[in-house]
Amino acid sequence: DAKTTQPPSMDCAEGRAANLPCNHSTISGNEYVYWYRQIHSQGPQYIIHGLKNNETNEMASLIITEDRKSSTLILPHATLRDTAVYYCIVRHPRAGGTSYGKLTFGQGTILTVHP
Amino acid sequence: KAGVTQTPRYLIKTRGQQVTLSCSPISGHRSVSWYQQTPGQGLQFLFEYFSETQRNKGNFPGRFSGRQFSNSRSEMNVSTLELGDSALYLCASSLETGKLPEGANVLTFGAGSRLTVL
Prior knowledge:
The complex is a heterodimer of chains A (about 120) and B (about 120).
Chain A: E1 9-13, E2 18-23, E3 32-38, E4 45-50, E5 55-56, E6 61-64, E7 70-75, E8 84-91, E9 109-114
Parallel strand pairs in A: 1-9
Antiparallel strand pairs in A: 2-7, 3-4, 3-8, 5-6, 6-7, 8-9
Chain B: E1 5-7, E2 10-13, E3 19-24, E4 31-38, E5 42-50, E6 53-57, E7 64-68, E8 74-78, E9 87-94, E10 108-109, E11 113-117
Parallel strand pairs in B: 2-11
Antiparallel strand pairs in B: 1-3, 3-8, 4-5, 4-9, 5-6, 7-8, 9-10, 9-11
């Protein structure tokens, strides 16, 4: 799986949009970008994933650049409960029998939302 | 529906002992994976089970082992505990039937079992 690079920490004011960048310059054509977050002392929580199109769900939006070498997770209206470590992960798709249970986590970005 | 359940949530052991951790996946999920999280190494993949078979294994010594039962519940065991085994052990399950789109195969994690080795 391709490696990812994220800033170690970011701050955001409550109610503002939080934009978390991720670099994955070695991503291959069939690898997906996944985002998980981990609130203190809990297990990681799935947020969103995408291949090449921008994606949006009830939690966040994912913007993937056209060359797919980087992406941005957007939390449109951050709240204090969004304070967490955010992990950007790139992994192979299901086709070909690749193990789905194995995710390679980096150090992630510690997002702190301030009142 | 119920999430991934891990037991025990907290436990304290001494060096040289062994420990068994349990994971009950979401009903219908057949894949169970285990991860170790430490402040120094972060989240690291231990192993994955599917249909009672270990499908993938991370770079951990043989003291770390696991198994999966026919009802998809899984256990992991660490023998001859060392101080460095102190960690949060996380279990995750996924649906994975082979016919679902990529998005259906996200991992759902439990709250973890926090092991302290003295």
